[in-house]
């Protein structure tokens, strides 16, 4: 039993040291922005064995418990403690809630960063000299992800997403500089909050203009009535 506990502790330590939270977050954002909208358009289900599946992100649960209250206020969703900066809440997760990391099933999403162009996304300065060996390695990783997540043998939809994935992520792993990462662009997913705010704004505008219109009509008919009253008054005077 003690050995087992020691072993679990060792695994936890290993994950803590070897999986970068920041790079995992970058990979997760890239998947969310540059892949998921296209997958949803094709109504494709990513298999759980795929390294890009959300369940294979070790930090996903913690990231979902990160509540942003304001520009400089973050709240821990587990214990409600507040923080001024994201890096402090990250540290807090590391120190207080790492027991919640699903180490047994979790995988390190940062490991696919090479394939997904995380450095480009984070905005790290690009190396002036392209390394052909590193590019070839990333291309290989990229293509193997495409093969396991969207196997061509799985049917036409899977083939289409496979093709898309190669163009979007894998083509740019070359030193020729011909192809840029995310060449197929990004599509923002429609956020429910965004839709609600838009509808409310439109309704408010509608009410505002209706009010202005009715008000102006009211003023007009009011002056007409006044004119009528004063005209009839003038007509009545001579008699
Ligand atoms: Zn907490």
UniProtKB/TrEMBL annotation:
Keyword Acetylation included in the entry's annotation: no
Domain C2H2-type per the UniProt entry, residue ranges: 76-97
UniProt keyword annotations, A-Z: Membrane, Transmembrane, Transmembrane helix
TM segment ranges: 192-215
Cited InterPro entries: Znf_C2H2_type (IPR013087)
PROSITE patterns: ZINC_FINGER_C2H2_1 (PS00028)
Domain of life: Eukaryota
This protein's name: C2H2-type domain-containing protein
Organism: Cannabis sativa (Hemp)
């Amino acid at each position: 039993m003690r050995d087992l506990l020691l072993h679990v502790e060792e695994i936890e330590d290993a994950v803590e040291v070897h999986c970068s939270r920041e790079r995992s977050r970058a990979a997760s954002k890239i998947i969310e922005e540059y892949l998921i909208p296209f997958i949803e358009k094709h109504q494709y289900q990513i298999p759980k064995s795929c390294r890009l599946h959300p369940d294979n992100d070790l930090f996903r649960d913690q990231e979902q418990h990160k509540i942003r209250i304001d520009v400089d206020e973050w709240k821990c969703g587990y214990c409600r403690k507040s923080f001024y900066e994201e890096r402090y809440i990250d540290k807090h997760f590391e120190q207080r809630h790492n027991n919640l990391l699903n180490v047994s099933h979790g995988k390190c999403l940062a490991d696919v960063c090479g394939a997904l162009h995380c450095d480009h996304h984070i905005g790290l300065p690009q190396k002036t000299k392209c390394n052909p060996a590193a590019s070839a390695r990333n291309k290989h990783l990229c293509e193997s992800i495409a093969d396991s997540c969207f196997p061509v043998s799985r049917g036409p939809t899977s083939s289409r997403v496979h093709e898309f994935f190669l163009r979007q992520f894998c083509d740019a792993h070359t030193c020729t500089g011909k192809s840029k990462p995310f060449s197929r662009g990004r599509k923002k997913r429609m956020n429910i909050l965004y839709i609600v705010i838009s509808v409310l704004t439109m309704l408010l505008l509608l009410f505002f203009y209706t009010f202005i219109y009715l008000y102006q009509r009211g003023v007009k008919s009011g002056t007409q009535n006044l004119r009528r009253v004063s005209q009839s008054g003038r007509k009545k005077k001579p008699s």
